[in-house]
């Protein structure tokens, strides 16, 4: 049975939170350990559900994952890597999308992989066609089986010339994790260049890989026969940092985010300043607060890095409901990432969704009937409501809206938040939120 979170809103969030390793890097670094001939050590690992899922998946494949009880550092030993049965894999895959990244490393290590049908947040179709196309280009044979796909490389994996139709983060990682030990040279055009991709490249380089990132989204990888282990401190989670920054703005609070890095948040900080948020950067983190007066509206487009990231959009939309005037947010990465606005409207926000591209650049979704542009008019007073958490970032935005709203809100599905926000309840109470978690019982 799940839990019910009761939120009494109207109080500013004030205090300090610590952000640790990025949810969108750590599980992939764990997968990279499969490529090594020696054990690896991963530091700055957050206690989130996605780490548990990948720990389970690595374990059923024979990788020994040990956690240092004091530091939380993970030691990953792939010496006894083996095949796993589809039921073992199913039992651990949960609703994560990470299993697809096991393909290359498992083919290099044991010649085959079974990948269960994927989950992840319901924010669009989230196909895996790019992944399968690049894997086939390396020489992999993909076969649909009940409950997932089987993938093997009977003739080995060979480097290839590849071009992605869109700079997909996951497909770029797929190429990196496969090409580093494929025979010969791989050239990937149209690659994603998110900070988490660079951190994965640094990990692979520590293992012995040869990877060059060019200025035009081209990545060149020279395959090597063997890789060793790595010792690496994961980059902090910039999406969690942006989430707490938005929480400070929305609740008219003041939050110091220890671990937030300016370099990885440049586009976010520009937008934050433009709508009326204040921030101060020091060597250990960034302090975020509401600058006083009314927030200012703006026109915003989500994009791949170095643009304004799609995962920053949802909490910021809550802040825009409090800006004076009309804001436009055009989502160009996922076709269906505005479902969360329903609950905000029930809480008093004025948000209309449109099928047209309302930003300055037409995107892939313009002619395809997706509600992917939002017009937000403000300011509107928010009041408490009951809601079910739909996905990670949308859920966070509902929670901060409830914390800013007058009255009481009740949220179910709060477990989803644990996929990407470490010690979420402790952090909320530490910031002074009036929240109570109770069991829904049977
Ligand atoms: N796409 C395809 N075919 C593919 C792969 C992707 O059409 O085979 C499309 C997607 O449907 C989407 C776009 O390409 O429209 C971009 O998807 P991408 O592959 O970049 O996303 P991802 O790797 O599945 C990661 C993060 C997301 C984050 C995106 C964009 C992880 C585990 N997830 O997803 O994070 O939004 O990159 O930066 O790294 C989150 O943290 O809440 C989250 C959803």
From TrEMBL:
UDP-N-acetyl-alpha-D-glucosamine binds at residues 97, 311, 333. It is found in: Cytoplasm. Pfam families: EPSP_synthase. GO terms for molecular function: UDP-N-acetylglucosamine 1-carboxyvinyltransferase activity. Pathway: Cell wall biogenesis; peptidoglycan biosynthesis. Keywords: Cell cycle, Cell division, Cell shape, Cell wall biogenesis/degradation, Cytoplasm, Peptidoglycan synthesis, Pyruvate, Transferase. It catalyses: phosphoenolpyruvate + UDP-N-acetyl-alpha-D-glucosamine = UDP-N-acetyl-3-O-(1-carboxyvinyl)-alpha-D-glucosamine + phosphate. The modification 2-(S-cysteinyl)pyruvic acid O-phosphothioketal is found at residue 121. The keyword Cell cycle applies. InterPro entries: Enolpyruvate_Tfrase_dom, Enolpyruvate_Tfrase_sf, MurA_subfamily, RNA3'P_cycl/enolpyr_Trfase_a/b, UDP_GlcNAc_COvinyl_MurA. Its EC number is 2.5.1.7. The keyword Cell cycle applies. The active site is at 121 (proton donor). Phosphoenolpyruvate binds at residues 23-24. Residues 8-428 form the Enolpyruvate transferase domain. Belongs to the EPSP synthase family. MurA subfamily. PANTHER family: UDP-N-ACETYLGLUCOSAMINE 1-CARBOXYVINYLTRANSFERASE. Cell wall formation. Adds enolpyruvyl to UDP-N-acetylglucosamine. This is UDP-N-acetylglucosamine 1-carboxyvinyltransferase.
């Amino acid at each position: 049975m799940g839990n019910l979170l009761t939120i009494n809103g109207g109080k500013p969030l004030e205090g300090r939170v610590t952000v640790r390793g990025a949810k969108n890097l750590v599980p992939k670094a764990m997968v990279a350990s499969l490529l090594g001939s020696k054990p690896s050590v991963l530091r700055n690992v957050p206690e989130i559900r996605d780490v548990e899922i990948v720990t389970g998946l690595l374990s059923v494949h024979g990788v020994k994952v040990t956690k240092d009880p004091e530091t939380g550092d993970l030691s990953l030993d792939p010496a006894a890597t083996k095949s796993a049965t589809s039921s073992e894999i199913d039992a651990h895959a949960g609703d994560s999308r990470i299993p697809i990244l096991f393909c290359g490393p498992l083919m290099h290590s044991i010649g085959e992989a079974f990948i269960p049908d994927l989950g992840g947040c319901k924010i669009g179709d989230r196909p895996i066609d790019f992944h399968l196309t690049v894997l086939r280009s390396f020489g992999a044979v993909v076969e649909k089986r009940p409950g997932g796909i089987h993938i093997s490389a009977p003739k080995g994996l060979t480097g290839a010339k590849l071009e992605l139709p869109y700079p997909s983060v996951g497909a770029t990682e797929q190429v990196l994790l496969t090409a580093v030990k494929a025979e010969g040279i791989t050239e990937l055009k149209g690659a994603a260049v998110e900070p988490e991709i660079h951190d994965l490249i640094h990990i692979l380089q520590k293992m012995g890989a040869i990877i060059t990132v060019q200025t035009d989204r081209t990545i060149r990888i020279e395959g090597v026969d063997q890789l060793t282990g790595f010792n690496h401190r994961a980059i902090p989670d910039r999406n969690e940092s942006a989430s707490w920054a938005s929480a400070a703005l929305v609740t008219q609070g003041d939050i110091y985010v220890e671990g937030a890095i300016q370099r990885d948040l440049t586009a976010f900080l520009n937008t934050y300043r433009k709508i009326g948020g204040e921030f101060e950067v020091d060597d250990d983190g960034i302090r975020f607060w509401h600058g006083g007066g009314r927030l200012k509206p703006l026109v915003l487009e989500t994009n791949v890095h170095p643009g304004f990231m799609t995962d920053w959009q949802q909490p910021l939309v809550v802040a825009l409901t409090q800006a004076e005037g009309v804001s436009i947010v055009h989502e160009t990465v996922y076709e269906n990432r505005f479902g969360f606005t329903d609950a905000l409207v029930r809480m008093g926000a004025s948000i209309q969704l449109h099928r047209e591209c309302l930003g300055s650049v037409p995107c892939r979704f313009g002619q395809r009937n997706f509600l992917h542009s939002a017009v937000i008019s403000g300011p509107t007073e928010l009041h408490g409501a009951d809601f079910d958490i739909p996905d990670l970032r949308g859920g966070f935005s509902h929670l901060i809206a409830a914390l800013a709203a007058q009255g009481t809100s009740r949220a179910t599905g709060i477990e989803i938040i644990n996929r990407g926000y470490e010690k979420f309840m402790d952090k909320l109470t530490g910031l002074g939120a009036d929240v109570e978690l109770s069991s829904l019982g049977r």
